Amino acid sequence: MNMIVRTAKQLGATLRRYRRQKGLTQLSLGKLMHARQATVSKLESGERGTQLGVLIDALTALDLELVVRPRSRAAEDIEELF
To answer: What range(s) does the HTH cro/C1-type domain occupy (predicted)?
Structure first.
């Protein structure tokens, strides 16, 4: 399933959702990333200042990829309704 993410909090929530779907704890994901559980927690909470390498490590460990594309106008129209 593709997810549109526009904020750090949305990205964190998306990573948490995929981690849980894979049956991983923050600790076990951290081990796969060679990072501490606290690092995973910060990433999932959307805390600013997370290094790009940490994000890439998490994506790799969760077998995900990052796709960057121009924002669609239709999505902006929908957001204005809410």
So the answer is: 15-69
